[in-house]
Design a protein that fits this description.
Number of domains: 1
CATH superfamily: Ribokinase
Low-confidence stretches: 314-321
Helix content: 25-40%
Structural class: alpha/beta
Number of strands: 13
Distance between the termini: 23 Å
Strand order of the largest sheet: 5-4-1-8-9-10-11-12-13
Strand content: 15-25%
CATH topology: UDP-N-acetylmuramoyl-L-alanine:D-glutamate ligase
Amino acid sequence: MIAVTGEALIDLVADSDGRIAARPGGGPFNAARTIGRLGLAPAFLGRLSLDRFGRQLRASLEQDGVTLAVPHLVDAPTTLAVVDVDSGGLPRYRFYLAGTSAPALDYPALAQALPGDLTALFAGGLALVMEPIASSIERLISTDLPAATLLMIDPNCRPEVITDRAAYLARLSRILHRADVVKVSVEDLDYLAPGAPPAAAAAGLLGQGPALVLLTDGPHPARAFLRDAQISAEVPPVQVVDTVGAGDAFGGAFLAWWSDSGLTRSGLGQAGPVLDALRAAAEVAALTCTRVGAEPPWLAEVRDRPGWRSGFGAAHQQPLA
């Protein structure tokens, strides 16, 4: 069982004509939907609102094969992100967090939602900044995570909402001591290690505990940094509509491919499987860029692509979309 913990929110996406569409979003939420669309039926450990947007988010999870593991909905309004997409498809975000639903997850509720048959946990995003969910996730990782559980972290740094950089970096460092895989973008590394070349910044993350660092850089090759090797995979060329959710889809797809292939924490030092998973994740991220908003592909859309031809998902029944 894969579980994903973090924020769910609504992206209010403004196009070049000023039209606004309300779409499901939030880095961990997008990753969970990716895993669900690839047929692995994950659990989402996040707080949703009772309002109309909260119902929209819940419906998205259900449609994508994701179980909402924190069933109690709160009366606080849904967390919002206003997304301004430029002519090149690159998004800029403004977040509305205070008093909203996503932060409102305390440790007892989170710990109670943790599945008993957990094999992998994905965490990160704004949930490592907002309270009380940030402290709840850190405590869950440090005290409740089974030793054999693979932990994947995507910090998805948002400098505009981090008010105490030193405290944020200290929390992230504590979490990374337990993490197995860290997924970052070049923008994340610019914030975490200003001025450092990406390879040096990735090596710095490896030194904090993880066995593997995954690095995305838009259309440039995705890279994986192991403790004794560095490998890369080309990103398939696509017609980009926007890049919203592409990094989240990459992380979710990597974890889905790894888990469905029967691989565990112990295999993360093997360059061959890591390269295969890297290629599969790059294909999913590229397809996500071909549609508006965070809309990862379904298994049926990737099954015949090079990174997914090894029989992935054969044991799963997935609706076509």
